[in-house]
Fold:
Amino acid sequence: MKRHLILASIVLILSACCSNLQGPIKRGKASEELDKAFASYLQAVKDSAEDLHSVMVLQHGKVLEEQFFVPDTAHVLHSVSKTFTSTAVGFAIEEGLLGLDDKIVDILPESMPDDPQEWLMDITIRNLLTMNSGHGKDPTSAIRSNDCDWVAEFMKWPIEYEPGTCYCYNSLGTYMLSAAVQKVSGEKIVDYLEPRLWQPLGIEKPKWLESPAGINTGGWGLYLRTEDLAKMGLCLLNGGKYGKKQVIPADWVAEMTKYQVPSVHSGVNEQERKNREDNSDWGQGYGYQIWRCRHNAFRADGAYGQYIVVIPEKDAVVVTTADINDMAEELNLIWDHILPAL
Structure:
């Protein structure tokens, strides 16, 4: 416990030293080729009748292109929230509060059912991070709409596969990560991230929705500005550094953004699986609450078109907020128009 207090104190001191990092991202001048490509992209967005709210293109640490169709105020991020929850887990692991192989029932034993399922006892932090908790169906919609103990209900949900063997997108699993960090740190993750992430990146402490138990929802419910998303994208692109400061542990960024597990549910037939793996940005694998993409990129991904797309081979980040149903088409327009000009 003494070691944990010392580490927390160091974090607070370092965050104070990072205050000079606050402020807007530097703007740069785009090439003529990128200007033309960006104009072509915006026209394609218009032609596709996409309800794009904002887009920002960054390369070599500077904003080169940006367009806002709504004011740059805090925007609902949906599942982009998951990447920030994973970041909180990374800090907790770095500080010795959690381990990847810690069992969720050991962290939250007070919520265990009287007669727990056998496989419940095996679910680890790593399983939750990779959407491999063993559930065959995402329990989120059935549980989050009720005024109940979401942790307890998650533990009762039928587990059909051995944890670690089956990918199933599971937003309530991310909520469990939020609950775990809150349990071991004594803080909601939005507060826990204040000295560790928000302040060093110069992000005003955001709104994050909570469960009836007062736990940040983790898998959704975070609100940030487009420029805030761009700052996070730059931090991930640079291995956890923002400016000259190491904000997120480099080892954690490397692990969370690399291919950890296949991202295709076991119920998908082999032909469809191969098609997704060859042609879809949803078939390139999953890290720790972050998606792999085509073009050796990775992304934080939220419903209706919220993206932080990081393209290491181009030293680039593309950020969008939107209200778009066809998220694959939204990404395709980025690949078709913006990528070739970077």
About this structure: The longest strand covers residues 52-59.
